[in-house]
Amino acid sequence: MLRSWLNERAGRRGDPLFCTRTGRRLSRDAVAQRLSTHAQAAAQACPSLLDKSIHPHVLRHSCAMSLLQAGVDTTVIALWLGHAGVRSTDAYVHADMTIKEQALALTAPVSAKPGRYRPSDNVLAFLDSL
Fold first, then answer.
1. Among the four 59, 65, 123, 128, which has the fewest Cβ within 10 Å?
2. Which DSSP symbol is given to 18?
3. Stretch 60-76: mean pLDDT, rounded?
4. How far, CA to CA in Å, does 116 sit from each of 22, 103, 113?
């Protein structure tokens, strides 16, 4: 859908993607208002959205998470979002449980068997003697 809109707009690079009737870029408030209107309409079809806080920053966060899950480096994501440094982008890495699980899966030794540690009698006797 976005590609169709881009083709329809056929503007020059740097032209606003979403603009007012006069061709100027939308203000932050205008974007927030339109997003709120469409979120309310979406909540009619999907009631679980009613208790969600949907605002423009959610779009930035969703974009960052999609890029991260696609394997894009956090330094590139930081540049994309206009962050002054990579540290601002670190929160996205900490927020994604899937990435954490994938990292843990890479560290598990192939020969490791799941289970609980059971100390030998010698170890227990040593600990009792302390």
1. 128
2. S
3. 87
4. 68, 22, 9
pLDDT in tens, 23-48: 888 999 999 999 999 999 999 999 99
**CA distances (Å), origin 72, targets 8, 10, 76, 89, 119:** 29, 28, 7, 12, 44
Q: Rounded distance, CA 25 to CA 73, Å?
A: 30
Query: Left, alpha or beta for 93 (phi > 0: left; psi -120 to 50: alpha)?
Result: alpha
pLDDT in tens, 8-21: 776 677 778 788 88
Q: Is the separation of the CB atoms in 66 and 55 below 8 Å?
A: no
104-128 burial, b if ≥16 CB within 10 A, otherwise e? eeeeeeeeeeeeeeeeeeeeeeeee
Distance CA 66, CA 55 (A): 17
Tell me the domain boundaries of the chain: 1-52, 55-105
Q: Which amino acid is residue 18, in one-letter code? A: F
| Local structure of residue 111 (DSSP, 8 states) | T
Q: Is the CB of residue 102 less than 8 Å from the CB of residue 96?
A: no
